[in-house]
Amino acid sequence: MKLGVIATCVVCAAATAWAAAPPSCDGDQCSVVAHDEILSFHRVESLTLPRPVARVHRYSSASYSANDPNEDRFVVHVDGDTVYASVLDGHGGWQVSEYVNQHLVNNTKARLRNRAQDISNTEAIGEGLEEAFLDTEDALRQKLLPAFELGFGQVNRVGACTMLAYLKEDTLVVANAGDVRAVLGTTDAKGQLMAKAMSTDHNAKHATEKARLAAEHPNESNIVVCQSPQACYVKGGLQPTRALGDFAFKYPEFNSFPASIASSHRGGGRFIPDPYTPPYILARPEVQSHVLTANDHFLVLGMSSTVSPLITSRSTTGSDGLWDDVTNDEAVAIVHHYASRGQHARAAQALVEQVIANTAAEYQYVCESPGQVIATMRGRVNTARIASLSPGRDRRRVHDDTTVVVLFFS
Predict the structure, then answer these.
(1) Could you give the angle at the alpha carbon of 129 between the alpha carbons of 127 and 132, nearest 5°?
(2) CA 80 to the chain's CA centroid
(3) DSSP calls for 139-187
(4) Its Gene Ontology molecular function terms (predicted)?
(5) Phi and psi for 98 in degrees, rounded to 5?
(6) Number of domains the chain is built from
């Protein structure tokens, strides 16, 4: 469904929605976006466990599509006395996130079984999670290389930012490769609600990642190309600096077709031109751990902020995930607002709704006639109008797939 602000526009959105400002929360008083069941979610789950497992007594999750098909995946898996929760932000397609979703948890279990004697050691658990990420990456690489060598070139540019949280007894270990984010909702010594980051965003816009890449690839002036402060790309092509997949950025054999087909295949040259000194993108996750206490109330896992390479500035881009439009503190306040009223099942959906409302309130979008930009304008397009856009090109111009998982602790 097209949004006709002017007759020749494909889509033009930006303006006032349910909320013209970020949520305002003070203790139990929280001004959040109203929910009128406008959004049609791709997938929603809410479950209360028969008994707490690793302090988790229930969870809430929601995924809202922009792409068609949705490129995000998530899973909450309870295995005896252990809980695994994963959120995957696919890019370039859904295939890598689907593969990782099917295999990462099982690979993690296998690695931790080999470390059974060290299972109470958080460092050993973290190493097991790292190995599982690399096992999953290597198995995927072996499956995709034959397809690439047959000329299926797109498989070298599909990837997934990957977050996995492991909980056992009072131990929380978070492994992250990419710009999915984990935030712990906790209270301080004075009983004040606060957000504790449990991951670091791996994105080319951050100074630390720019510095690391420049140090590792000192003779490449195009190691990070920025279209705006919020839109920086490794070798001009990818924002996250860690992910599973994206093999053109990691292995020479995925950067050009074999000689036997390259000469006859259109576009058979290098996908990433010289200078080319991979790997640029890392599959090994960063790991953080935390001992859960009675002050810890919930863990939020969600998409972080990336920008489509088709868009060149913040003034003409939409949201690409939870943390693009909602801060850590705001997310924690919104979840607390619903949990304190016994509405745990609504928490993940409410975070997604806030993202879409803020997107409508804060951004302006480019209107196009076929092949030509004709106007940039601000309208008064509410969330219902944005939600009416069909998943695919139209909706993806406004925001990306947005997925949230909230684990609640007893």
Answers:
(1) 110
(2) 28
(3) HHHHHHHHHHHTT-GGGGG-EEEEEEEEEETTEEEEEEESS-EEEEEEE
(4) protein serine/threonine phosphatase activity
(5) -65, -45
(6) 1
β-partners of residue 13 are none
Question: Rounded to whole angstroms, how far apart are CA atoms 210 and 99?
Answer: 29
**pTM: predicted TM-score of the whole model, two decimal places:** 0.83
* 8 in Cβ contact with 369 (< 8 Å): yes
Distance CA 74, CA 64 (A): 12
CA 152-155-157 angle, to 5 degrees, is 130
Nearest to 45, CA basis, from 15, 5, 87, 4: 87
**Can you state the angle between helices 122-149 and 95-113, rounded to 10 degrees?**
140
Task: Compute the distance between CA of residue 366 and CA of residue 388 in angstroms, rounded to an integer.
Answer: 18
* Domain containing residue 41: 24-409
Pick from 60, 67, 56, 111: nearest CA to 89: 67
- Token output for 304: 């972080």
Kindly give the interhelix angle for 328-339 and 347-362, rounded to the nearest 10 degrees: 140
Residue 15 belongs to some domain of the structure? no
Lowest pLDDT segment from 118-127, 328-337, 361-370, 390-399:
361-370
Report yes or no on 337 lying in a domain: yes
Helix (H, G, I), strand (E, B) or coil at 44: strand
Q: Is residue 6 part of a domain?
A: no
Q: Which two tokens stand for residue 264?
A: 């006859």
Residue 378's pLDDT band, with cuts at 50, 70 and 90, is very low
Residue 8 falls inside a structural domain: no
Is residue 62 a contact partner of residue 74, using CB atoms and an 8 Å limit?
no
- Compute the half-sphere exposure of residue 86: CA atoms within 13 Å on the CB side of its CA: 30
Residue type, 240: P
Tell me, what's the pLDDT at 262? Answer: 64
User: DSSP E strands: which ranges in 292-392?
Assistant: 296-302, 365-369, 372-377
